[in-house]
Model the fold of this input.
Amino acid sequence: MKTTGLRNRAGANITAYGSTLIFLLPVYVLINLSIRPADDLTPPVIPSSRPTLDNFINVWTNSSLPGSIFTSLTVTTLSCLTVLVLGTMASYPLARSTSRLSTSTFYIFMIGLLLPFQLALIPLYVQMRDLGLLGTVWALVIVYSGVQLPFTVFLVTTFLRSSVPLEYEEAAQIDGCGPFLAFWHVVVPLLRPALGTCVILNSVGVWNDFFTPLIYLAGSGQVTIPMAIYQFVGQYTTNWPLIFASLLISMVPVLTLYLIFQRYVIQGFAGGLKG
Done:
């Protein structure tokens, strides 16, 4: 029995370390290619014999990447705040009400998870044009808020139903809190795992999206990070070291956000999906 346990533990350790190496290999290749000169043609897995930081300096000083980071941060922050506020306010009555109308409304939101964004591409573009929002970040904020709202409503509603007992709100109301105060001081703090999960997933989706900014910011001086990185891709030549250096720089804000909210991600999925 003891020998079998040691073998199982050794097998689990080998599997874990092997999986870690597999996931770290692309990161190593990314870093390796970002610190080599453009004329270094050695295979990506072989360390560069002439490592340099000039690629990062060139990207930061001779491209639109710094401005695109500010634009992406603005769009991501405004979109996530809008989705969290609207999603939380919509999820609370859907989770607490037992009427047929509430159930039907919840399933209408779920239809938004199934329908592709491209179905509304032309009507949304025409609407943004008529509102005079083309070429501004507000067009992106409105589109992203609508696209991400169904998932946020789904996760927060199921989390409320399964992980936030109604007795907490009833106790707060007995102590003198009104419905709004009970929601703000009791329910919202208990929603931190679900809201943290929504922040991570929605932020990554907005941050990495290329198609939507390409449509709604075309012709303007504003670009997001994926659009700025795409400027290094030419018809006949592509500057891969600058692309990989830009990718590393663009990863920093997302990784920072993940490190802040990582403890909420598993809790949010565990509480939301089991409902």
Q: What stands out?
A: The domain at 54-273 is CATH 1.10.3720.10 (MetI-like fold).
